[in-house]
Design a protein that fits this description.
The structure is a single chain. With about 500 residues, the chain is an alpha/beta fold. The chain has ten helices and 27 strands. The strands form six sheets. An eight-stranded parallel β-barrel has the order 1-2-5-13-14-15-16-17. Strands 6, 7, 8, 9, 10, 11 and 12 form a seven-stranded antiparallel sheet that branches. Helix 1 packs parallel to helix 2, helix 3 crosses helix 4 and helix 8 packs parallel to helix 10. The longest helix is centred in the middle third of the chain and has 18 residues. The two termini are about 20 Å apart.
């Protein structure tokens, strides 16, 4: 069986000219050829910002680029017909489709309602800082452009637990709505911000059974419409795990399939929070390894002062490997974005070797790292910046190594602060490989790859080193890498 490798097939600055779905369809064979087995696609539904929205300010879950809403029929990515064609093209190329699910909030309400609310401390949402009073909030969603097609459900203030804007006064703050489902926030597994139920826009009230039923019905409709293979769940740290246990159960029961699910839970440096959420979701989903991402970011910034022997410490891939989806970068961490913490380009080949060529974790690579990109935006300093994210030239070779060589018994050599390595012995269908990387000087390390390779010669698949390495009778050899680089050694003339 081929190693699974996913790609986030978009980034925050993906083109907004409506051609994206067509581009995806055209790319499908190339992705399969590179060893990609799954593609994470962006939120496909109509959002508050219409045709320029990345999709996370979700407005109408049932509008996949079909209805004239928010001043556009298409989404940023194209029309519903083009979306369906893109999904089919990927699946015909044996690339599974992971769709982005955004259920934490809704934006762009159609009408306001007068509702009772209290203001809360933004840094401790359990601290109420006002008496109850009436505000005017955009909490009425009836989707006039769709006119009840697919669903006649009307969203109102009983469907939301919080908002961030009072239209009566023009005030922006965090307001907890006082509805029949509770005069507080929903219970979450940890106490960040006191309670981090509220994130943005109109926060969905999952204690309302009508809301849960509607979202379960929508999940079934979305699967029937698109036929996806997996789901990426946005902002799960702000959503009660009880809801996603129920929602995923409904989806899997309706489809008869064990739909893959991965949740986005940003908790850099706090592995305990990731484990608490995993425990509370009872094995129903995986999580992105944001703890590993932080290590990679810090290692890239620290250069040769970072202790590479510790780079997997306190990560999900080392403590819950079957539930870890590993990343080097994504749309939130890329330069100029909200959680900006990029991995420096010099270190990315090392980082990708760590997630692609080891036995644990499900790696997800990032579109700009494979194909490169260029964009401009306003940074945190208020100034416009021009950003170039170059293609990582080694990445295609690392994908080849994952597809063809990263199998079988793994032996680790995390025994030096600057130079670490491991070997994969291979299996009955694949020969193995030896991986050596250094964040300092040129590296050399004696490693065991197995007696099956006695007297065989190995070369660097990435062509960084020109030596020919011969394996000794006991299955050992000395392997090499350049300064600040990675080499992948495979058997010559196989």
């Amino acid at each position: 069986m081929q190693n699974g490798t996913a790609i986030q097939l978009f980034h925050w600055y993906t083109t907004d000219d409506g051609t994206y779905w067509k581009q995806v369809a055209e790319m499908a064979p190339q992705l399969a050829e590179l060893g990609i087995t799954a593609a994470w696609l962006p939120p496909a539904f109509k959002a508050a910002a219409g045709g320029v929205s990345t999709g996370y300010d979700v407005y109408d879950l049932y509008d996949l680029g079909e209805f004239d809403q928010k001043n556009t029929v298409r989404t940023k990515y194209g029309t519903v017909e083009e979306y369906i064609n893109a999904v089919k093209a990927l699946q015909q190329a044996a690339v599974q489709v992971i769709v982005d699910i955004v259920l934490n909030h809704k934006g762009g309400g159609d009408e306001t309602e007068k509702v009772m609310a209290v203001k809360v401390n933004p840094h401790n949402r359990n601290e109420i800082i006002s008496e109850p009073y009436e505000i005017e909030a955009f909490t009425k969603f009836y989707f006039p452009g769709r006119q009840g097609k697919y669903s006649e459900f009307i969203w109102d203030h009983q469907c939301f637990s919080g908002v961030d804007y009072d239209h009566l006064t023009g005030e922006t703050d965090i307001f907890n709505l006082l509805n029949e489902w509770g005069h507080d926030w929903e219970e979450l597994p940890d106490d960040e911000m006191g309670n981090y139920d509220y994130l943005m826009y109109n926060d969905i009230e999952f204690r309302n059974p009508a809301v849960r039923e509607e979202l379960c019905n929508w999940g079934k409709w979305y699967y029937d419409k698109i036929g996806f293979d997996g789901v990426r769940l946005d902002a799960v740290k702000h959503i009660s795990p009880k809801f996603y246990n129920e929602w995923l159960g409904c989806l899997r029961a309706a489809t008869g399939k064990e739909i893959f699910a991965v949740g986005e839970y940003w908790a850099p440096g706090d592995i305990d929070r990731l484990h608490r959420y995993l425990d509370s979701t009872e094995g129903n989903m995986s999580l992105f390894d944001t703890a590993l991402h932080l290590n990679l970011h810090q290692a890239s910034a620290a250069g040769n002062t970072y202790d590479m022997s510790t780079i997997l410490n306190n990560t999900l891939v080392s403590t819950a490997p079957t539930k870890a989806v590993t990343i080097v970068e994504n749309h939130d961490t890329q330069p100029l974005q909200s959680l900006e913490a990029p991995v420096e380009p010099w270190f990315k080949p090392l980082a990708y070797a760590l997630i692609l060529l080891r036995q644990d974790g499900y790696p997800c690579i990032f579109y700009p790292d494979l194909f490169g990109t260029h964009y401009t935006d306003i940074g945190r300093d208020g100034n416009e910046h021009e950003i170039w994210m170059p293609e990582i030239t080694e990445l295609k070779g690392l994908l080849l190594a994952r597809s063809n060589y990263a199998y079988g018994l793994q032996r680790d050599y995390f025994d030096h602060p600057n130079c670490i390595g491991w070997t994969r012995e291979g299996d009955g269908e694949h020969n193995g490989c030896a991986v050596l990387l250094s964040n300092g000087d040129a590296g050399i390390k004696k490693m065991e790859i197995g007696e099956r390779y006695a007297n065989k010669t190995f070369i660097d698949l990435l062509q960084k080193r020109q030596e020919i390495v011969t394996i000794d009778e006991s299955g050992f050899a000395e392997f090499y890498c350049d300064p600040g680089s990675v080499s992948v050694w495979v058997q010559q003339d196989q």
